[in-house]
């Protein structure tokens, strides 16, 4: 037998062939985040034409800080949505963790230790949820609803009669309220480009060594160039001075951006390139097949809930950093927006499909609707209604895409 | 004929008061397709589950390559090289062909998935079975036809260096052309020296591809015949209980 592969691997042909193949995948219903990216561009164009403030540097920076918390909640939820589960308590878990953190710090505990306790709380909650779902068989909707109802009570008890405590940790406040020096923004872009290129070349060299066909290098270069142009434009805008007061100088990439990007990168790496990630998709797609393949399904489910709670805790940190205090209602509203963001971005509620970048893009769509309508002076009610409409469209598109790819089962 | 790869003798299995297998003998040879036929409730599934290690036999001996073995867990069966392709296939539709073929035994390189090695091996396994119907090994299973899915499930057992492949109704849900493809695949599997056990209700398929036919009737192995030396009517007689081995003798 020869050493060559005669069956196609999807890597054959010129760059043009590859683009055509991508087009036909889109037609067959594997649209991924593309509809959300389309919506994003449409919304930006719409608000930019309606409001002169929308594209100003200060609003641009605001958008990122507004979207960051939601993005982290949505990313957290991707891990459970992917398994066809849900965690309604992600927001209040974060709120309760932050209440523990702020209260303990005010009572004299070093802030890092207090923060570690908040994360320990997240681990415990995630494990408990996962245990109820995977081992006992309680539907995740119900058990997380129970946590959702109970945790604001715990928060009230911790926060005391006032129901609110101020954050007095400058290190945490800095996340949402400081910016990187100008050079650090460019360094961030350089690291991103370097990593993209290095991983692309690494995968390519592995394929060459395995005697497999490879995609044209030009595709990789195009990807890197696209990131360079879009990222470069973004950083250039964020590096413009944007203070409204002449005596105050505000410029640079908000500190939260590199933090969020790093978490997204690690999460994506985990899902795309490790056994655990592969098992997550397998369990989400067909738990019985996963079980027969020897995958410990319960363990994967529990781990997913733990990751969800831990990432939710990070969203809690972002939130408390931004508003500077913890209230007993913290995290109640955001979790449903997080689900909406994930679905709008292309994560399937039916399980088995979803990426963190989908959650990020979905969060931007929702944040832009909020931000843009606010700038236009629309009553807050409109933002809710339009967000609801966008979610309806996204969920319908998801269902139709599933139908279409289901329809192709009968084709040979 | 060479030595049997698997030899069952006097295998019994009861569920409470119900005796499902009443002392079954079966010989399975490498490089041959043994069809296991019998009406519903004859005990085919119970017999297969025992070989897969999912459910153990109460009594009787199982010899694998002449050695007495006890198949008490799926892991033991799998380590001996017994692979079962279930009727519902157990594939993840949201994963591609390579990912499904390696599910549960992914190859790693520096702690991360070794996609190129897996892709190469998967393509090789499909090639060794002369599979030409799949467009790309990176196609999602959701986009495959029933016959192609069956192909992926069977190729997965080849990838695992199976010595025995047990197929549970591999053509049950397929059209004419796809049935033909899958039967050809079953033949090639045996030609690679693998012992194939195929459960089927379709005697047309059985006579087309099987070398031996084993008939279960109410928990008893009433006949194990060479396909060449029998015919439709005789097999139907055994399946329905109109004919028994003793009568013949």
Describe the structure.
- The complex is a heterodimer of chains A (412) and B (249).
- The C terminus of chain A is likely disordered.
- Chain A is globular, with a radius of gyration of 22 Å.
- In chain A, strands 1-2 form a two-stranded antiparallel ribbon.
- By secondary structure, chain A is an all-alpha fold.
- In chain A, α4 crosses α13.
- Chain A is built from 16 helices and 2 strands.
- In chain B, 34% of the residues lie in helices and 27% in strands.
- Chain B contains 9 helices and 12 strands.
- In chain B, α4 packs across α5.
- The model of chain B has no long low-confidence stretch (mean pLDDT 89).
- The chains are: A mainly alpha (412), B alpha/beta (249).
- Chains A and B meet through α8, α11 and α12 of A and β7, β8, α4 and α5 of B.
Mean pLDDT of chain A: 91
Secondary-structure class of chain B: alpha/beta
- The residue-averaged pLDDT of chain B reads 89
Low-confidence stretches of chain B: none
| Pair with the biggest interface | A-B, 42 and 48 residues
Q: Could you give the count of β-strands of chain A?
A: 2
The helical percent of chain A reads over 70%
What's the SSE pattern of chain B?
Answer: EEEHEEHEHEEHHEHEHEEHH
Salient structural properties:
heterodimer; A: 412 residues; mainly alpha; two-stranded antiparallel ribbon; 2 strands; disordered C terminus; B: 249 residues; alpha/beta; 6-stranded mixed β-sheet; 4-stranded antiparallel β-sheet; globular
